Amino acid sequence: MEALGRLFDIAPAFTDGAVDLQSAQTGIRVNMEGVQGVTIVIVKGIGTGGDDPTYTLQEHTAYTGGTSANLVEIDHWYIKSDTTAFDGAETWTKGTQTAAATLTDATWAETDTLLVIEVPAAALSDGYTHLSVNVGDVGSNAQLGAILYILHGLNIQRAPANLPQRLT
Predict the structure, then answer these.
(1) CA–CA dist 146, 45 (Å, integer)
(2) Domain residue ranges of the chain, discontinuous segments joined by +
């Protein structure tokens, strides 16, 4: 069996895949039931100084409607960045902060960024089954970005075509 379906599943955070962060983006809610956790992968292009993205982690009791709350879980992350373009020479750097629902940095606008945040399913509050990442408006200048949810520790392993729909 391949890794997809056995070790992990993948879901997009935005309906259009890559989006312009020039306007705020509300992430799609991903179902965390039946997994041990999610690795959130954020890819962002170079933007204009001062237009730094802010990422906010939320938990929800349903795919639509229900109750939503900020999920105070981001205390560390890993990042690769480059001020011109990714060329393969970048290395992972670990960032830390006091646990919070939001993550930002005053230098991220000026770099190509690959950012990874790990969230265990057990971090969700009782009764909360879904997770999302929202991105705040970065300003008036275009800046492309995309987010993928990589769900891992699948409780039920299946062929990729038989994986459950995670965006429900």
Answers:
(1) 9
(2) 8-154
CA-wise closest residue to 105 among 95, 94, 114, 116: 95
Structure tokens at 81: 């960045």
- Please tell me the distance from the alpha carbon of residue 70 to that of residue 147, in angstroms, as a whole number: 18
- The tokens for 11 are 């879901």
| Per-residue model confidence as pLDDT tens digits over 105-163 | 888 888 899 999 999 999 999 999 999 999 998 888 888 899 999 999 999 999 999 99
